[in-house]
Amino acid sequence: MIESQRITLLSSMPVNKAGSFVVYWMQAAQRVRQNEALAFAIEQANALGKPLVVFFGLERSFAGAQERHYRFMLEGLAEVQQQLRLLGIPLWVHGDGIIPGLAKLVPFISVLVTDRAYTRVERQWRKQVASFVSCPFYEVETNVIVPLEAVSDKEEYSAATLRRKIESMIAYFAQIVAIQKPLVDGLSEEPLFACVNLGDTAMVLKALALGKMGGVCPHLVGGEIQAHQKLSQFIESKLSGYAIHRNDPSQQFSSGLSPYLHFGQISAIDIYHAVREIEVEDVPVFLEELIVRRELAYNFVWFNPLYDAYEGLPSWAQKSLAFHEQDRRPILYSFAELEQAQTHDPYWNAAQKELTELGTMHNYLRMYWGKKILEWSPSPKEAFMRALALNNTYQMDGRDPNGYAGVAWCFGKHDRPWAERPIFGNIRYMNDKGLERKFNMSGYLARIEKEIGLNSQLS
Q: Domain Photolyase/cryptochrome alpha/beta: where (predicted)?
């Protein structure tokens, strides 16, 4: 049984007894393993003695996402389709979007289940679907360990305030879910529309005619198998030392799991169970990032309707930045110059190239990167929108609660007022001298140059 606090009823229509099957609309949790929404959908199908169909709507445009993002997602979906077939569950992928695809299925659905999502467009999809379904419609929380409302009923001020509430709940909500084979095989069900052929990624991408900004990122391959391999590699070679080295950009001690978490190709619960019993001092530090910091970002996006706007920043930050908005900027760069890494700062340029060419950015450098955009832009608001646009366009986990919270942090979100200075006001300040004092920055430049070169060879 799925914990009841993970389940929300979005439409209380009665069960459609004339329906042919139960449908799980997969969107935020693109995986089979440890998928609470899939498990709940199987429970519903078994209770009704009906087959289960998994539906995925392929949107042709999604908030600036590029071909690199769709390729990664399609690689994962092809793997999901294969794994579902072993369970007797078909995956039907509609190539013209979520709403048109579900509209064709509605008359035949006995019960509809989906996974929970948090951004504005994803919430709007669920609201639209709830308005026209003719059966019960459930949403199941799958991508955080502790359901948001179980932790708090408001936007939390900082990691400290969330940590006090969430720590005692983690063990209870981190329940392992076994995915059972449905009682009724659904593979004989005929699709009610022409399904996308996930076996031909190149053809699907060509048909979608997507933007191709940035490198193609062949070093990042999507899917559950790759996600769990990344996790195993991290545990074997990087978990020990993570606490000391995670902030050093010259070394690569990150888990590399962010893109997989973003597309729901791995569960945070699986990660939690994989590391929590390992007896190294780095585990609590890693779990702080995985649970407290990550779920603080989800809290921000869920409870703050302005999570992607400058006006969503704390009032103290907006007031301080407004007071210094007319301060003289020693250097101003255009958006194009920033996008093309054409600044005087070699560290910032390397971070931007890491973003555009590799689809990632070292977490510590992302903080520095955002601070410098604030310093080099005509106004704080324009700086915020520039940082958000660059992050959403190029980061493989862009358009994610972590990304929105990360950009907002650079402008004071989840932080406190610091000593006042020009341009920044009371916003935390960072500069290149600080990087050089703390880290081997020439080593960082060499690492990024090497990784970009290796990525080019794979292209």
A: 20-148
pLDDT value of residue 389: 96
Q: Tell me what percent of the chain is helix, strand and coil, each rounded to the nearest 5.
A: 50, 10, 40
| Measured distance CA(164)–CA(80) in Å, rounded | 37
- Which pTM does this prediction carry? 0.97
Left, alpha or beta for 90 (phi > 0: left; psi -120 to 50: alpha)?
beta
- Determine, yes or no, domain membership for 344: yes
Q: Residue 143 and residue 264: Cα distance in Å, rounded? A: 7
- Evaluate whether residue 232 is within a structural domain: no
Angle between helices 268-275 and 224-237 (to 10 degrees): 30
Q: What is the CATH number of the domain that holds 446?
A: 1.10.579.10
Q: Look at residue 454 and give its three-state secondary structure.
A: helix
Cα–Cα distance for residue pair 288/23, rounded to 1 Å? 35
Q: How many CA atoms lie within 13 A of 277 on its CB side?
A: 3
The answer to whether residue 63 scores a pLDDT higher than 80 is no
